[in-house]
Amino acid sequence: MKKQEVICYIAMVIISLFVLVPIILITIGTFTPRLELYKWPRGLIPSRFTSDSFISFAQSYGVMNGLKNSITVAVLTVIFSLLIGIPAGYSLSRFKFKGKSLFTVGVLTTRMFPIAILAVPLVKIYMGLGIYDSILGVAFIHTIFAFPFAILISHSIFASVPREFEEVAMVLGCSRLGAFRRTTLPLVAPGIAAIAIFAFIISWNEVFAATLLTLHNRTLPALIVARLEATTLDFLFASAFFMLVPCLVFIFIIRKRLLRMWGIILR
Amino acid sequence: MASVEFRNVTKKFGDVVAVNNVNFKARDREFLILVGPSGCGKSTTLRMVAGLEEVTEGEIYIGEELVNDLPPKDRDIAMVFQNYALYPHMNVYENMSFALRLRKFSKEEIDARVQEAASLLEIENLLDRKPKELSGGQRQRVAVGRAIVRKPKVFLFDEPLSNLDAKLRTQMRTELSKLHEKLRTTIIYVTHDQAEAMSMGDRIVVMRDGVIQQIDTPQKLYDHPINEFVAGFIGSPSMNFMDCTIVEENGIYADAGIFKVKIPEEFDLSKYIGKDVTFGIRPEDLHDREFIKDAKPENTFTAKVEVREPMGSDVFLYLEKDGKEILARVSAATKAEEGKEIEIAIDANKIHLFDKTTKKTII
């Protein structure tokens, strides 16, 4: 092996450990008997594996409701992001219009303002609109976080499909919409699925805005964060594990797709 | 089968005029070529026929029908694009049958038409392949096949050979010409390559900056270009141009400084006497003096051979005299050597003169 390759491998191992060790520890902690968690000194591998912590977490007050809220918010975020992102991305890739580059930059600048500085005005506006402490309200703010990515990614996906595909179809007998449905859509469908998953994850993981804008209708991460102060180790492990799993599963599903999309954007 | 007619058609993109008051008619069954440098509006013109661009002003007719507001799908046309635009998620058969499936043809009819087109294009053995498994030339054939199964009134080709290598391009030129013979459908074909235009078209429309310069058969364009632009654009290598003055001394002469050519007497240049004009001569109308026994002395000049480029059938000589560069295409038998002087005879019957201000052809 060359020197560069060796360095590369060492870096890969370090980065992997950095990411994997906490995940592994959390997983072990979740399935360790509750009392063993407080023992000192404690071995890495518990005396037995049990799903007691996990079940008690799932059954504890508010968790199931939080889960329901989280999923509802995430699904709404996906729908809103796609509704905004696909037409916008399509237009960016297909049409010339005044202020196009300004629009692209503008989309990105929505991510320039940390939510923290907007916190107070946001709460005030939400109260004024009557959507404070509502599922829809949280979905709106999560859509704000997700849609710039939805636009930029769908732009790059559409740009990778030559416009001639649709033009040929139109000449050969399709309407504009029919041409899109028959040629471009099947080609971009996997990419759009990836955008949907991406938006889902953004919403699933978001804590701050969800905490800020809700009181009773908390999403799962907001609920967990609210309880961090006064809770037990087993609850912490189980909740961390619970939040982690969907992300891991999704990352594995869209891994290849994601790499290809970044490739397109970088080019 | 149908003609395609443009009446006073103008296309603007915002303030930019892409196509300016264009009038022409592609006759029924004609192979008409639109040619011009890039950005001259030829592709836009073609896309207006297809309905992919809206017409700003004027009227387009396919056959007797005004098509300005007809969507592309109702125009009964087929188009082949430069990048082929074959659908990667469909195999060759599915690509070729796309238009027929849209129109809900019966399975037997689709099969018959695809097979017919495939055998015409010699791609029967590729029908179950995906586009990415095909070579450039094969993709080109499939794209053409997808267009011909339609049996449309008009074929539109937008630079279809530009992505092929030189040898394949020449071969496909011949095949497309043959295909036109067989199908006898009206074809409008866009290219920036004047050689392609010359070799394929029944007639050629030369465009520049959105304006039609000349519409004529290839030979007429070559022999009688209407202005300096067409003269320079058609023909390869391109025509030599130089400044000259019309003078009268026992007949009328074009005086270019390095030589003086006698203007054949049938041309009346009396109103140009004493004026500056542009002199044009094609490289093949300059000959090695040695092979022209009866060359008149006034139509000859000597120049230094800078570069000698043998092309097999003939030789390109890059000549220099008094700072002026001239290209001559002479017989391969020439004894010209680089760095030495050669005597060149000008074919006075083939000279062109262009007005300095209007750029129009005088003779």
Question: What's the quick description here?
Answer:
The complex is a heterodimer of chains A (267) and B (363). Chain A is mainly alpha-helical. Chain A has helices at residues 3-30, 34-37, 52-59, 63-94, 100-109, 115-129, 135-159, 163-171, 176-205, 208-213, 220-227, 233-266.
Give structural notes.
Chain A is globular. With 267 residues, chain A is mainly α. Chain A has helices spanning 3-30, 34-37, 52-59, 63-94, 100-109, 115-129, 135-159, 163-171, 176-205, 208-213, 220-227, 233-266. Chain B has 363 residues and is of the alpha+beta class. In chain B, α4 crosses α5 (136-148). Chain A binds chain B through residues 162, 164-165, 167-176, 182-183, 186-187, and chain B through 50-52, 71-73, 75, 77-79, 81, 83, 85, 87-89, 98-99, 102-103, 146, 150, 156.
Tags for this model:
heterodimer, A: mainly alpha, MetI-like fold, 2 domains, 78% helix, globular, B: 363 residues, alpha+beta, 5-stranded antiparallel β-sheet, 9 helices, 34% strand, elongated
Shape of chain B: elongated
Low-confidence segments of chain A? 263-267
Report on the biggest sheet of chain A.
Answer: none
* Terminal-residue CA separation of chain B: 39 Å
Q: Quick one: CATH superfamily of the largest domain in chain A?
A: MetI-like
Q: What oligomeric arrangement do these chains adopt?
A: heterodimer
In helices, the fraction of residues of chain B equals: 10-25%
DSSP strand tally of chain A: 0
Q: Termini separation of chain A (Å)?
A: 30 Å
CATH architecture descriptor text of the largest domain in chain A: Orthogonal Bundle
**Portion of residues in helices of chain A?**
over 70%
Strand arrangement, major sheet of chain B: 6-7-8-3-9-10
What form of chain A results from the Cα inertia axes?
globular
The greatest interface here is: A-B, 17 and 23 residues
What value does the average pLDDT of chain A take?
A: 87
Estimate what percentage of residues of chain B fall within beta strands. Answer: 25-35%
